[in-house]
Amino acid sequence: MKSLLSRATVSTVTIFKSVQSLYHDYAERMYYKTKARKTAQTVGPGLYVNGKINLNSNTVLGENVHLHGLNVRGPGTVTIGDYVHAGTDCEILTENHNYDRGDAIPYDDSFTVKPVTIEDCAWLGIDVTLLPGVTVGEGAIVQAGSVVTDDVPKGAIAGGHPVEVFGQRDMQHYETLKSAGKFN
User: Which of 51, 154, 67 is closest to 59 using CA atoms?
Assistant: First the structure.
């Protein structure tokens, strides 16, 4: 009887810890989702947040955006289209030190600010960094760990430091799915 009671106690504690963990995860997701809605300029319906995110007040989020961790640095405009997915630990930089036109070297106290755009249905892998002024084209896929220094064309599959295009989605299939409204 004592062994049965001991096992029941252990099971109850395990269940309690699991529920506690699930609640914590849910509460964290709701916190960052609420923070996004309060911070961003516009947030479309269907926002899904599953990780720490920090946006600026010039961020525009489209419909059904899935963010698993995103940090926007700088005051520049960030436009994220519909059905965009971003993995954990992604960074978007909208400003850089003024190293070419400044009053000191290696740079002065001023910044250059440029917008960043991620078009519809693009997918950023884990730990992707977008530098100021870039556009990730519609349906493009950026490999985990990449640094995007130049625009990524529509439907491109790209990766590296700096990012290089090494493939292309089957755009006929992409357009068929898009026309049928088959979004994730």
Answer: 67
Q: Is residue 83 exposed (0-12), middle (13-18) or buried (19+ Cβ within 10 Å)?
A: buried
- Is 42 within 8 Å of 60 (Cβ atoms)? yes
d(CA 79, CA 136): 10
DSSP-derived 3-state class of residue 93 = strand
Q: Where are the alpha helices (DSSP H) in the chain?
A: 2-39, 171-179
| Tens of pLDDT, residues 122-141 | 999 999 999 999 999 999 99
- 103-125 pLDDT, tens digit each: 888 888 889 999 999 999 999 99
Identity at 35, one-letter amino acid code: K
Q: How far apart are CA 77 and CA 69, in angstroms?
A: 18
Q: Where are the alpha helices (DSSP H) in 40-132?
A: none
Instruction: Report d(CA 61, CA 64) in Å as an integer.
Output: 9
**Cβ contact 121:138 at 8 Å:** yes
Mean pLDDT computed over every residue of the chain: 90
